[in-house]
Specification:
By secondary structure, the chain is mainly alpha-helical. The protein has helices at 8-41, 55-79, 83-113, 125-156, 166-191. The protein has a single domain, classed as Cytochrome c oxidase, subunit III, four-helix bundle (Four Helix Bundle (Hemerythrin (Met), subunit A), Up-down Bundle), CATH 1.20.120.80. The protein starts with 7 loop residues before the first helix and ends with a helix.
Length: 193
């Protein structure tokens, strides 16, 4: 298929989707770099062996997965032009996204309660990596939350339909990526210690 063919709207739609995927690929490379650095650093003498992730990280994993389920259901109801249900599911996904961040903060508090700070005399290289990886991911979740807010506002203003949902689809793809990314990071941190 020739990418230069089609109406201006079709070209714009393809361009926006391609830009999103370029962004996602760059994020994959960034997190691959962080997890690779984590693996390389694990050979250090001061590496903390046998650490246990805080329970809040387990809960946050379930929360962000559930938010993706809500967003998937919202897309299905949008395809059926069920505006009220779509809006309710979008708001549910947003609330769960905020709950994810809250749960992550609780996880940081549990790490601090265990005696490990990000920097200073009570810091540890292992926990510092966990802080960095989780905080960088949270920043992307915040970007996803902003996207969800925009989608909710557009949905309330009736800008989406079963046939016209580009902004919805882009935000949904990004949110599902952020969800899958956290699940990968969680299992990586949970099992690689």
């Amino acid at each position: 298929m020739d990418l230069t063919q089609g109406t201006p709207q079709e070209k714009q739609k393809r361009a926006k989707k391609m830009m999103l995927w370029f962004g996602i690929i760059s994020l994959i490379m960034s997190f691959a770099g962080l997890t690779s650095a984590f693996i390389v650093s694990s050979s250090r003498e001061d590496w903390l062996v046998g650490f246990v992730l805080p329970n809040a990280f387990i809960y946050s994993t379930l929360i962000i997965f559930l938010s993706s389920v809500f967003l998937y259901a919202a897309k299905q109801t949008l395809k059926k032009n069920q505006a009220t249900t779509t809006t309710s599911l979008l708001i549910g996904a947003l609330i769960l996204g905020i709950a994810f961040i809250y749960s992550q903060i609780q996880g940081f508090n549990q790490i601090i309660d265990s005696g490990y700070n990000f920097t200073g005399p009570t810091s540890n290289i292992t926990m510092s990596y966990i802080y960095i990886i989780a905080v960088v991911h949270i920043l992307h979740v915040l970007a996803g939350i902003i996207c969800l807010i925009v989608v909710i506002v557009n949905q309330l203003n009736k800008k989406y339909s079963a046939e016209d949902r580009l902004g919805f689809d882009l935000a949904s793809s990004f949110w599902h990526f952020v969800d899958i990314l956290w699940i990968y990071l969680f299992f990586f941190l949970y099992f690689f210690n």
